[in-house]
Please model this.
Amino acid sequence: MSITSPFYAHLARLRFIKRWGLMRNAVEEDVAQHSWEVAVLAHALAVIRRDVLGVPIDPNAVATRALFHDATEAITGDLPTPVKYSPAMRQATAYLEHEVSQEMLALLPPAIQPALREVLDHEQWPDDHAQLVKAADRLAAWLKCRAELRYGNTEFEQAAQQIKGKIDQHMIPEVRYFLDQFGPAFELTLDSLMRGD
Model:
């Protein structure tokens, strides 16, 4: 039997890793869903940057990096925010994510490692790509909180306020445009979306 790579099999398991693990969820969310949503939002922000603001950027490259932004969670699982971002754990978490990304890259055949390193290793990302992926990640988290609140789940009230505070604190024109143009539709029901209300 030939030696094969488990890299993509690891990524396929992201669908089994639940997000928001310390909170009661009205609708469960897994890391694979979240990664797709962040990729779509990052692509949108990059298109806005390029086509509305006139700043050169490759939306497809940004979207691809966003798609892989939580890939290491295939190994580490989703660390809860209170753990991941506590002052004592921030540096340790960054080190862990870096080490796991290197271990995952080592699982790949050598010929394709460079292409995946560009998207998996956050240290390889251009600053403008990292900024948009981070903004999209926050935006996805806030939209999740807003959805949970619409479902009557008050468990997400404080998270929604904290994440919106970070979005406001780090507001960029692309996010402002997205919120103005597309944000209100996230509050609509399916019937309203279909009618274009």
Q: What stands out?
A: The chain has one domain: 7-191.
